[in-house]
Amino acid sequence: MNLTIETHSLKLKSKGNCDIIDITSQVQEIISNRNFSEGNVLIFVVGSTAALTTIEYEPGLLKDYPQLFNKLIPENQTYHHDQTWQDGNGHSHLRASLQKPSLSIPFKDGKLLLGTWQQIIFIDFDNRSRNREIVIQTFGNKK
Q: What's the total number of domains in the chain?
């Protein structure tokens, strides 16, 4: 079998302010629809105020996760970025850089190798709603 690399784009409309969106099914759909059997998927959010990770996508964590960032990097502080640009989102940049913009997940038999309670999430830390792009690059063998 030959190694195949494909790049796809996922467009999202987010609300900002720690908006969390589960993108697991969209990533799995790309792997399934393109007949990949085994390999790796790289997921990358374009922009410097959003991030990706995995969590258990359940109501308690959807509240706990933003609260964690409010404690670590509060939005009601003065940041040098805000003084430079006057856009009030210095906290957004810091939160996103702490979380990171990309994630790599293996797959086998056409299925993401995630745990039972593990979902892929996009989180928008910006202080306003945004149109977002997520790049999904699959590399692996096809069926």
A: 1
